[in-house]
Design a protein that fits this description.
Elements: H1 3-13, H2 38-44, H3 48-65, H4 76-88, H5 93-105, E1 113-115, E2 127-130, E3 133-138, E4 141-147, H6 152-155, E5 163-167, E6 170-171, H7 172-181, H8 189-197, E7 207-213, E8 219-225, E9 227-230, E10 235-240, E11 244-249, H9 254-266, E12 273-277, H10 286-297, E13 302-307, E14 313-317, E15 336-340, H11 347-357, E16 362-365, E17 373-380, E18 386-395, E19 411-412, H12 417-422, H13 426-442
Helix pairs in contact: 3-4, 4-5, 9-10, 10-11
Length: 443
């Protein structure tokens, strides 16, 4: 079998390997799975036998398929002993899945996760529970970093930059400290990021009472109700200073890869520099990522390898022609800067590392997630819920693991509270400044 044929087979296998992870949305290709009626799933988990069937199936699947036979030193049998009785006595499907999440959380692996039947959705139109705003750690405090337009949070006067002080009457930092205390490494940037980002997690339809401090130092409070929200991931292109292009890639999907290739061919005429914004890119489809990487690295660049628990491995690389498009992939030699954050994860980290190790791009922003494992297939549980299991580990072309080790940028620019209040994007400003100076130097 020729090398080109082998490469195509490997890339087809990889099409859904690298799953999105991290706030605010997990995801998976909904077209791969049959629909499940909520009534049927509720009836199934209404019995002790049904709940145990779901629990045992999830535990066994992880036991059989998890990429690390040692489970990072965790006694996986002991987890079954601890959590199985709790699953048996769960009072609802919601409680059952809360037990499963507690057990899975002990792996400290954002790719291994479980979804109740009603939580299934399209990978590329992620659906998640929110209260209308997002939280991150700024200067050590839980801080609002984004408020959805026309949301109850915006109407209540909540603004990016405000500090969350209490949640349902409890000090927010006390809740954060408790959750951090359960982590094996509290200094891990991505683990801390997840704790802060998930501070307000809870079931859809349930209320949460928030107290916060605004820019003026005054304390305010409001009651919000959690709700489902869906967003569509895409590509956003604009110009800075006329001849510098900024492309935001929210994920690596097949439609996004196609749109990106067309942008290179049609919309970058006259551009003298390119900024790729991956600060909200949680990963995605490995084939789509390879397509986009091919636009910068050329043909045959080694993007690293995946290995399963048995030691079997395979390499991914860039290519001349996409399996998804007839025409050769568009390529560019424009000066390139890539923007990263703690939300840059999974396939996006593979992409960033490949560009950096080849000296193709300068990286600006903050350390990435360090969340680079792969989900080979999704598993349907007996009640119609879904389980993702990290079945493949990843190493770079140089043999370095990225899981648990975020990529540090060439220039670190942390978000400050004043930036949020003023709407200033210092990371993008620095990237534009660097490219503008380079443009002048080249002329």
């Amino acid at each position: 079998m020729g090398n080109r044929r082998k490469t195509k087979i490997v890339l087809r296998v990889l099409a859904f390997l690298v799953a999105l992870s991290l706030y605010p949305f997990p995801c998976s290709p909904i077209a791969l799975f049959p629909s499940v009626h909520a009534d049927a799933s509720l009836a199934f988990t209404a019995t002790r036998e049904g709940r145990l069937a779901v629990f045992d199936d999830a535990w066994n699947r992880i036991s059989d398929r998890y990429y690390d036979r040692t489970f990072h030193g965790l006694d996986w049998d002991a987890q079954r002993t601890t959590f199985r009785p709790l699953a048996a006595e769960a009072e609802s499907s919601q409680d059952l899945y809360a037990v499963l999440r507690r057990m899975i959380a002990s792996l400290n692996d954002p790719h291994t996760r479980v979804f109740a039947p009603e939580e299934k959705f399209d990978w590329w139109r992620p659906r998640f529970v929110t209260v209308g705003f997002a939280i991150a750690e700024i200067a050590g405090l839980p801080t609002v970093i984004k408020v959805d337009p026309d949301s109850a949070a915006q109407r209540a006067g909540l603004r990016a930059g405000d500090v969350i002080e209490t949640v349902n009457g409890e000090a927010a930092m006390s809740l954060v400290s408790i959750r951090l205390s359960g982590l094996p490494n509290t200094a891990n940037a991505s683990a801390r990021f997840r704790v802060f980002a998930k501070l307000l997690d809870g079931p859809s339809g349930t209320p949460v009472e928030i107290t916060w401090k605004g820019k003026d130092g005054k304390q305010k409070s409001a009651r919000f109700v959690r709700y489902w929200k869906e967003r569509e991931l895409g590509v956003h292109l604009r110009r800075e200073r006329g001849d510098l292009a900024v492309i935001e890639l929210e994920a690596f999907t097949r439609p996004i890869a196609t749109t990106f290739s067309l942008s290179l061919q049609q919309k970058l005429e006259g551009a003298r520099g390119l900024i790729l914004d991956l600060r909200t890119n949680g990963g995605g489809d490995a084939e789509a990522m390879s397509d986009i990487a091919s636009s910068f690295l050329g043909i045959g660049a080694n993007l690293g390898q995946f290995t399963d628990r048995s030691g079997s491995s395979f390499t991914i690389s860039t290519h001349f022609r996409s399996l998804l498009m007839r025409d050769p992939l568009a390529q560019t030699k424009l000066p390139l800067i890539v923007l990263t954050s703690e939300r840059t994860a999974s396939a996006a980290e593979i992409f960033v590392e490949a560009l950096r190790s080849s000296h193709r791009a300068t990286i600006i922003g903050t350390e990435t997630c360090g969340c680079v494992l792969a989900v080979r297939n999704r598993h349907e549980l007996p009640d119609g819920g879904l389980l993702d299991v990290s079945e493949l580990d990843y190493e770079t072309a140089q043999g370095h693991r990225l899981e648990g080790h975020g990529l540090k940028p060439d220039e670190t620019v942390a978000v400050e509270r004043s930036d949020l209040y003023s709407g200033r994007d210092r990371v993008l400003e620095l990237a534009v400044s660097r490219l503008a100076k380079l443009r002048i130097a080249l002329h």
